[in-house]
Design brief:
The chain is mainly α. It has 2 helices and no strands.
Length: 57
Amino acid sequence: MGHELFTAAQNLDAAGEFAGLISLVSMTLILNGLLTILATYALKRLGLAKKKERSAQ
């Protein structure tokens, strides 16, 4: 991915550069979401997750 971005930048290929950047951003968001879900699951499994406090009504 990095090589493609570098090549697109060297060739002044703006469309290729933006396509590579959009791909990197989307992969980052997906991986961040998956790791957040995994961390939440692991904390719940270990019993370390914060419990939701009920508001006094």
